[in-house]
Amino acid sequence: MFQGLSIFAREARSWPFEQARALLDHVLTTRLPDRSDRAAAAKLLEDGGAAEAVVRFPALVARPVVLETGYGPSGLPHIGTFGEVVRTTMVRNAFRALTEDALPTVMLCVSDDMDGMRKVPENVPDPERLTPFLQKPLTDVPDPFGTHEGFAQHNNARLRGFLDSFGFEYQFRSSTELYRSGVFDETLKVALRRYQAIMDVMLPTLGPERRATYSPFLPISPSTGRVLYVPMHAIDEDRCEIAFLDEDGTEVRLPVTGGHAKMQWKPDFGMRWAALGVDFEMYGKDHQTNGPIYSKICRILGKEPPVQFCYELFLDDKGEKISKSKGNGISVEQWLTYAPQESLSLYNFQKPRVAKKLYFDVIPRAVDEYLAFLDAYQTEDAAKRLDNPAWHIHAGSPPDKGSPVSFGLMLNLVAAANASDTSILWGFLARYRPGATPQSEPLLDKLATYALAYYEDFVRPTKSFRPPDDRERAAMVELAARLRALPADTIDGELVQNEVYDVGKAAGFENLRQWFQALYEVLLGQSQGPRFGSFAAIFGLDRTADLIDRALRGDDLSSGGA
After folding, report:
1. Residue 421, CA atoms < 13 Å, CB-side half-sphere
2. CA dist 237 to 179, 193, 203, 215, 298, Å?
3. Does pLDDT of 324 surpass 70?
4. What is the Cα–Cα distance from 523 to 349, expressed in whole angstroms?
5. What per-residue confidence (pLDDT) applies to 536?
6. Looking at the predicted structure, is the pLDDT value of residue 75 above 80?
7. Residue 325 scores a pLDDT above 60
8. Distance (Å, whole) CA 302 – CA 294
9. Between these two residues, 507 and 1, which has the higher pLDDT value?
10. Which of the four, 14, 301, 351, 406, has the lowest number of CB atoms within 10 Å?
């Protein structure tokens, strides 16, 4: 799938390819310390000789290139989870194209499920049952839903189901299992030997009170099973042990290995990068100030930190940061009620370093932009395709056709036809696209379903019709006459659009945008819409003329114009 693309990938401008090139530089630098080897491998890769490069330099494929994404299992997966995974997947696919898929890659999804439960979630059954388990690792908290061994295991299963439903390719890792199985042990031993160096990084970032009790290691109390935020009394590098006061005041010595302790979240970030050999990770702007801290700790532990990409956070309709606890913004499930997954992927692809509003009113535009990119892809050359969002959304293999009707146009068709189900819409669509059926045009059929739902919930409640002024009335009378003068079976939207233009110019509208706005407000109860000629061609010229007549008579159009 990704063969023969490296020559184009080198010049691609889209941000996933920018990150992919940075990732390749990182891989070459960390795996080929000899400068001449690195230059030779880079030259081979540039010239499309990736297969030869990995033969000559086996260190490049000694282990997979690791892209990581993290998940906090204290709650269910959400739209931020989707965004981080889909964006990381886009970088991974760009890297595969850049390297002709010769370097194995893996995307890890790591659940921070050994974190202590800081507060009882409100949206679970019988939340009071969980109170005795506060500060225990989330994997040791009972599952309030009764489906899994623990609360984290329940949410981890939901995460995997969530990611699987979108077809993401990933490997799941539980932080608890990584700690308790010993995967982190060697790195934790290094962290203990370099305890003071880590403290020297962390202490300047803390306030005086926290500084007095801070430790990068959080022991798990052998008596209560809680994650303890306590200072260390002693560090034993030879035994790999820490000494501290347990909750009952007795001094306890525990190894830092085997899951007897975990690291504070900032040191944990850097430790995980070092232990898992992470080559790429992206995170939200709320981590931006901590990125240098994670990197310093990773270097203290003897490894080079990964390439990092910081993205902006989504905002709600009021411009406030979207928060899981507030429940503002829009969920993945809600978006997918009104639009295809690909439109959500596009919204995440576009300008990831710019804060964007993520609410219901952005959906129609996102859908239509996706359709436009998909249409453009069909006629683009190989080089340009790599910068088309459709390439990234579909992992290099977009479908060979999109939808002949835009989502915005479909919404207006729903309004004008007073459609209550897709069969009504298909009565118009089949005339506009002879031979088209739900089976032959599956995306168009899905858009019809989405449009019905979106219109009912967000468009119909906001409609506001107004009567035309004298000039608009005269122009609309003329337009109705012209529509009736055209062949009734006309489906050429451009021809109809030209008639609409001519009427507007003849009526003296210096800015034709005002003329189209008048049509939308008088006939459809909204201030804007798609090309009116295309709408009239699909709806039918006689029906559109009748709709104009009804509006001019002052009929109630709020229930549709058909």
Report:
1. 1
2. 18, 6, 21, 15, 19
3. no
4. 36
5. 92
6. no
7. no
8. 13
9. 507
10. 351
CA torsion angle 36 37 38 39 (round to 10): 50
Q: 177 to each of 110, 148, 174, how far by Cα in Å? A: 10, 16, 5
Residue 137 to residues 61, 153, 218, 221, 260, Cα–Cα distance (Å): 36, 11, 11, 11, 11
Do residues 484 and 521 make contact, with C-beta atoms less than 8 angstroms apart?
A: no
**Residues 353/397, Cβ–Cβ less than 8 Å:** no
- CA pair distance 95, 106, nearest whole angstrom: 11
Contact 27, 76 (CB under 8 A): no
Residue with tokens 């962390």: 202
Of the candidates 114, 159, 121, 111, the residue with the CA atom closest to the CA atom of residue 137: 114
The confidence band for 323, taking pLDDT boundaries of 50, 70 and 90, is low
Geometric angle at alpha carbon 116, from 111 and 117, rounded to 5°:
95
Main-chain phi, psi angles of 250, to 5 degrees: -85, 145
User: Which residue ranges form the domains of the chain, and what is each CATH number?
Assistant: 6-115+151-181 (no CATH), 205-263 (no CATH), 332-392 (no CATH), 407-553 (1.10.10.350)
250-253-257 Cα angle (round to 5)? 140
Q: pLDDT category, 431, cuts 50, 70, 90?
A: confident
Cα Rg for the chain, rounded, in angstroms? 30
**Residues in the chain, overall count:** 562
Distance separating alpha carbons of residues 307 and 304, to the nearest angstrom: 9
In sequence order, which residues have a C-beta less than 8 Å from that of residue 122 and are 6 or more positions away? none
List, in order, residues 6 or more apart from 452 with CB less than 8 Å away.
414, 419, 420, 421, 422, 425
Q: How far apart are CA 67 and CA 24, in angstroms?
A: 12
Token couple for 349:
């692809």
Contact criterion met (CB below 8 Å) for 396 and 94: no
Task: Give 462-473 pLDDT, tens digit per residue.
Answer: 889 999 999 999
The phi and psi torsions of 54 (rounded to 5 degrees) equal -75, -25
Handedness of CA 388, 392, 394, 397 (dihedral sign): positive
| Greatest extent of the chain over all pairs of C-alpha atoms, in Å | 95
Express each pLDDT in 153-190 by its tens digit. Answer: 999 999 999 999 999 999 999 999 999 999 999 999 99
User: Sign of the CA dihedral 461, 462, 468, 472?
Assistant: negative
Helices and strands in the chain: count of H runs, count of E runs:
25, 10
Side chain identity, residue 31: R
Instruction: Give the three-class secondary structure for 117.
Output: coil
* Mean pLDDT, the chain, integer: 93
Query: DSSP string of 2-38?
Result: -TT-HHHHTT--SHHHHHHHHHHHHHHHHH--SHHHH
Q: Is 80 exceeded by the pLDDT of residue 327?
A: no
